[in-house]
Amino acid sequence: MNLKITVNGEKKQFDIEPNEMLIDVLRREGYKSVKKGCNMADCGTCTVLKDGKAVLSCKVFAASVEGCEITTVEALGQNGPLHDIQQVFVDESAFQCGFCAPGIIMNTMEFMDDIQQRENKVVPVSEIKNRLNGNLCRCTGYEAQLSALKKLVVKYGGEVEDE
Ligand code: FES
Ligand code: FES
To answer: What are the tens digits of pLDDT across the range 22-47?
Structure first.
């Protein structure tokens, strides 16, 4: 079957099987930033944005995203300066092997968009920690990632409320 979607701002058409998952189509078509970790909706490495909302591409049927806008890390910082979000994670040395990075960055994109749109800009640390809950990282212990997220919350207009 034919799938028409927009990926990273470009209109695309892919031939897909009816039972294919979005992660497999994206990786086959060259979006290798989308990492396959557990393939069971547990680890968050496959996170992409679907119409601006973070989804686990290993549990989304490709056929269900007809007409949607999909965003992967390839959309950020291509052939130029890093995106603000990428730069803060780099500044904080928030990754080691980097396998979890694309998923965490896409999840953070949604989080920052949410902070910009909400009326109450006070963000408890517990909410920031919850944001990291869905993205497993085997290397870092999450401290540097938490620190990066706190800086990003402020950068995007929020106020961090310590516990
Ligand atoms: S590969 Fe999708 S959540 Fe782990
Ligand atoms: S930096 Fe290695 S899994 Fe997160």
So the answer is: 999 999 999 999 999 999 999 999 99
* Ligand 1 center from residue 34 Cα (angstroms): 10
Owning domain of residue 29: 2-75
Any atom of ligand 2 within 6 Å of the Cβ of 118: no
| 54 CA from centroid of ligand 2 (Å) | 19
Which of 42, 40, 48 is CA-nearest to residue 22?
A: 48
Is the CB of 102 inside a 6 Å radius of any atom of ligand 1? no
Low-confidence residues in the chain, pLDDT < 50: none
Residues 59 and 92 in one domain: no
User: Is residue 105 domain-shared with residue 53, that is, in the same domain?
Assistant: no
3-state secondary structure of 18: coil
Ligand 2 pocket residue status of 99, Cβ below 6 Å: yes
Q: Is the pTM of this model over 0.90?
A: yes
Query: Are 68 and 90 within one domain?
Result: no
Q: Are residues 157 and 89 in the same domain?
A: yes
d(CA 130, CA 2): 37
